[in-house]
TrEMBL record:
Keywords: Redox-active center, Signal. InterPro entries: Selenoprotein_Rdx-typ (IPR011893), Selenoprotein_T (IPR019389), Thioredoxin-like_sf (IPR036249). The keyword Signal applies. This is SelT-like protein. SUPFAM superfamilies: Thioredoxin-like. Gene3D superfamilies: Glutaredoxin (3.40.30.10). It comes from Hibiscus sabdariffa (roselle).
């Protein structure tokens, strides 16, 4: 980028490269951030959007960021294995006679005859059970609220949702108690 390009950007938007400072005025923390991390697969999105609108109405100068709270790594990895299991079961039901003689298994196992006799029901059952397993493995059940990086409310710890008024009070209390710093770590009073 040449110098005149940079000057044009600054002329059009003088705040484009200005560092953002948090400033407290009248008890509201301008430049503060509230992160709401929720379980997307648990259908908590509407609750998160409602809480976001309420917080933005109550504290107009804060940024409210919504994000998915992922499940733990072992559950995520297991959820990736489930479709392989589903297609494996469906493949066995549909093509046992062609697949297993190639690898030296000539006589089908006894349970195969049951699956083959009820082919449609077996495939649908494998598909539906796999989807239920995958859905339960991908859900975290979380609804976590952070204010400037500090945990304000945790559904995982509390075992329940916070009400709107309670959440507003918790965020307001955290904003009132927080000290304001700029990017260099200098505390302003």
């Amino acid at each position: 980028m040449e110098k005149h390009d940079f000057d044009n950007i600054i002329a059009n938007d003088p705040y484009a490269y200005a560092p953002r400072l948090s400033v407290t005025i009248g008890g509201i923390d301008y430049g503060s951030t509230v992160n709401i991390n929720f379980c997307a697969s648990c259908s908590y999105r509407e609750t998160a959007i409602t809480m976001k609108k309420m917080l933005e109405t109550q504290f107009p100068e804060i940024d409210v960021i919504l994000d998915n709270y992922p499940p733990p790594l072992p559950k995520r990895l297991l959820s990736k294995v489930v479709p392989i299991f589903q297609f494996g079961v469906i493949g066995i039901i549909m093509a046992y006679e062609q697949i297993f003689p190639m690898i030296g298994i000539m006589t089908p196992v006894p349970w195969y005859y049951f699956l083959r006799a009820n082919r449609f029901g077996s495939i649908v059952t494998a598909w539906l059970l796999g989807n239920v397993m995958q859905s339960s493995l991908q859900s975290s059940g979380a609804f976590e609220v952070f204010c400037n990086g500090e945990l304000v409310f945790s559904k995982l710890k509390e075992g329940r949702f916070s009400g709107e008024i309670k959440l507003k009070d918790l965020v307001g209390k955290t904003l009132a108690n927080s000290r304001v710093t700029n990017n260099l770590g200098v505390v302003w009073s």
